[in-house]
Specification:
Pfam families: Methyltransf_12 (PF08242). S-adenosyl-L-methionine-dependent methyltransferase. This protein is an alpha/beta fold. Helices cover about 25% and strands about 25% of the residues. It is built from ten helices and eleven strands. The protein starts with 8 loop residues before the first helix and ends in a 7-residue tail after the last strand.
C-alpha cells in the first residue's frame, strides 16, 4: 500500500498524548540497526507462495474459528486501558457526534433489545471474546448500546455465553467487515463510535479501503473511529523467520492468522481518502516490562482517532 504525503504530523494534527511512563510518542518510524535490517532481508529469502497466500485469505474465518476453539477466552487480556486512552468510551461523555441519540441504532432483527434508554451507539469491530466491551460494562459504562461483531462465529458464541451479555444493551453478531454483510444488521449513519483495535492488521491490505469505507457509512456525521494497531518495525515483525512473509509488512503466523504492520502516514492517508478527518495519529513506542519474569519487550503501535465530518451527508 503506498504512503502519500511527507508533511509532519505537527502540521496536520495534534500529537498523541503519552499515557504510560516511558512511552515515546512520535510521527517518525523506528530507525533500524544493521542487525534489524539484516533480519528483514532474511525474511525475503523465502516468501509465502501465491497459492498459499490465496488459501490463507479464503480460509481466514476458519483459522480464527480454530484460534478461539483452542484458546477460548484465555489468550487476550481484558482491555481495561481503553477508557484511559480513549475518553470517548467513558460513561457520561457527550456522544461522538456531539448530539445524544435517544434510541439505539436500527436492528434489522426479530429480537429488538428492550430496556433502559441509551444515549450513544458503539460498534466494536473484531470483538473476539469481549475483552473490550465487558470491562466497559464492569466499570459501569452503560450509557450506550453496544454492537460487537467478529469474523469468527465461535468468538461471537463465546461473547453471547458471557455472564454479562445482555441483549437489553448489546448485540453480538458474526460478519465480514470487509464486505457489505454488516449492513444486514446495522444501517447507514447509525453509530457514534467504532473501535478498530488490533483488527485491521488481520485483514488483507487489499481490503483496507473497503473496510474503512464501510465504517464511514456506518458512522453518524461527527462520529469517531478509535484506532490502535501494530506499528512498522514492531518487535513481532522483526522476529518473523523466512517462510512467513506474504507481502510488504504482511505476515502469516504459525496458526494461519495474519498480521500487518502499519506506517503512521499510511493509516492517516487511508482514513483521509475515505472522507475522515484525522484528529490525532502517532506511533507509540512502549516497553512491556515484567521484572519477575525478566521480560523487557519493546513494542510499537499506531494509535489514532478519526472523525467523520459533522457536516457529512447522511
Amino acid at each position: 500500500m503506498n504512503v502519500k504525503g511527507s508533511e509532519s504530523n505537527r502540521d496536520r494534527f495534534p500529537k498523541q498524548k503519552a499515557y504510560n511512563l516511558g512511552d515515546v510518542v512520535t510521527d517518525t518510524a523506528k530507525t533500524l540497526t544493521e542487525s534489524e535490517l539484516a533480519q528483514l532481508e532474511e525474511q525475503n529469502k523465502r516468501l509465502v507462495t501465491p497459492f498459499q497466500a490465496l488459501k490463507l485469505e479464503q480460509e481466514a474465518r476458519k483459522h480464527w474459528d480454530l484460534f478461539y476453539k483452542r484458546n477460548e477466552n484465555r489468550f487476550f487480556k481484558d482491555r481495561h486501558w481503553t477508557t484511559r486512552e480513549f475518553s470517548e468510551l467513558l460513561a457520561g461523555e457527550e456522544s461522538a457526534g456531539g448530539v445524544a441519540s435517544s434510541t439505539h441504532a436500527n436492528v434489522q432483527s426479530d429480537q429488538e433489545p428492550q430496556g433502559e434508554k441509551v444515549d450513544k451507539t458503539l460498534l466494536e469491530i473484531g470483538c473476539g471474546v469481549g475483552n473490550l466491551i465487558f470491562p466497559l460494562i464492569e466499570d459501569g459504562h452503560r450509557d450506550y448500546f453496544i454492537y460487537a461483531c467478529d469474523l469468527s462465529p465461535r468468538a461471537v458464541e463465546l461473547v453471547r455465553k458471557h455472564n454479562l451479555y445482555d441483549e437489553r444493551y448489546m448485540k453480538a453478531f458474526a460478519c465480514d467487515i470487509t464486505t457489505e454483510e454488516v449492513f444486514e444488521t446495522l444501517t447507514d449513519a447509525s453509530l457514534d463510535i467504532v473501535t478498530l483495535i488490533f483488527v485491521l492488521s488481520a485483514i488483507h491490505p487489499e481490503k483496507f479501503r473497503s473496510t474503512v469505507a464501510n465504517i464511514h457509512r456506518l458512522l453518524k456525521p461527527g462520529g469517531v473511529v478509535l484506532f490502535r494497531d501494530y506499528g512498522l518495525y514492531d518487535m513481532a515483525q522483526l522476529r518473523f523467520k523466512p517462510g512467513h512473509k506474504i507481502a510488504e509488512n504482511f505476515y502469516m503466523r504459525q496458526d494461519g492468522t495474519r498480521s500487518y504492520y502499519f506506517a503512521e502516514e499510511e493509516v492517516s492517508e487511508l482514513f483521509r481518502q475515505a472522507g475522515f478527518t484525522v484528529l490525532v495519529n502517532s506511533y507509540i513506542h512502549r516497553r512491556t516490562i515484567n521484572p519477575k519474569e525478566n521480560i523487557d519487550v519493546p513494542r510499537i503501535f499506531v494509535q489514532g482517532k478519526f472523525q467523520k465530518p459533522p457536516t457529512a451527508k447522511m
